[in-house]
Amino acid sequence: MKKPRQSRIRDDSADLSPSVTYSVPAGTKTIDVIEYMAQAQAPQTKSEIAAGIGKSIQEVYRIIQLLVARGYLVSEDNGNRFSLSMKLFSLVHTMPSVRSLSEASVGPMRRLASEVNQSCHLGVLWDAELLVVSQINSPLNMSYSVALGARFPAHETSSGLVLLAGLEPQRLERLLAIIESRMHTEEDIENVRKHVAEVSRVGHDLRPSLMVPGITNISYPVFGLHGETLAVLTIPFLAIKRSTLPLQQTAIAASHAAQEISQAMGYPLHFPKSVSGSS
Questions:
Q1: Rounded-to-integer distance, Cα 140 and Cα 204, Å
Q2: Among 119, 133, 139, which Cα is nearest to 163's?
Q3: Lesser CB count within 10 Å: N end or C end of the chain?
């Protein structure tokens, strides 16, 4: 009797190896436009967008029209200028992981802001950047806060350093390579490695802001079910006389809030590091 023919299931995963690249000109130009507009400081004309990504107006005209029609770009000045809408940010917040984080963090963050009279925010890694996905303002009239949806180079923020310190070694090296390629001439990747190692050793970050004089950042990781770093809770500490708790008491409150969010995300008791000492 003839044996039944064995069915063969093709594994397409080999075709998706990182070493294999495919040319998709329209898709590449569309992504280039979105990434360029995300960095633009003001509404852009078609000519400015084309020049910004190194293409001709003819190459980007239909792409701009498509992005406007789908709601990713907003037409301004009677269609002469364009800016990026909040649609991408809205899409990020529909992701189950980000939505769960936002839901788990809002209560603890509100209680934290009320207890210490400081603003606080929750950030995640987005490529090699920090993306702020949740933010609560201080109840005081005078305070410092970071805008919801703001993005910063990860290596320039305490939040980003905590997130980098929580990565698996291979992913950390990939992101450090990206960071190094984007650095300004006066920056040194070895300093970034040193900061990440310090944060990894201590388990959190407490240092004067690398970007804003007068602010001391207090950053604690938020863990998931398996101990992975999901996000980071940060207080940009602004000392206001007779209105705020001392720095170390604020750090303790921040660590408790980060632990509460972590538990809501499935992480078991307790945090591996305390607030004693600082990096």
A1: 26
A2: 133
A3: N
Give residue 237's identity as a one-letter amino acid code.
F
Pick the more confident residue, 273 or 58.
Answer: 58
What are the φ/ψ torsions at residue 253 (nearest 5 degrees)? -65, -40
- CB 122 within 8 Å of CB 233: yes
Cα dihedral 133→267→273→148 (10° resolution): 10
Q: Are 250 and 118 in contact (CB under 8 A)?
A: yes
Contacts of 48 (CB under 8 A, 6+ apart): none
Residue 232 has pLDDT above 60, yes or no: yes
Mean pLDDT computed over 192-209: 95
How would DSSP label each residue in 161-193?
A: HHHHHTS-HHHHHHHHHHHHHH--TT--HHHHH
By residue count, the chain amounts to 279
The answer to whether 210 and 158 have CB atoms below 8 angstroms apart is yes
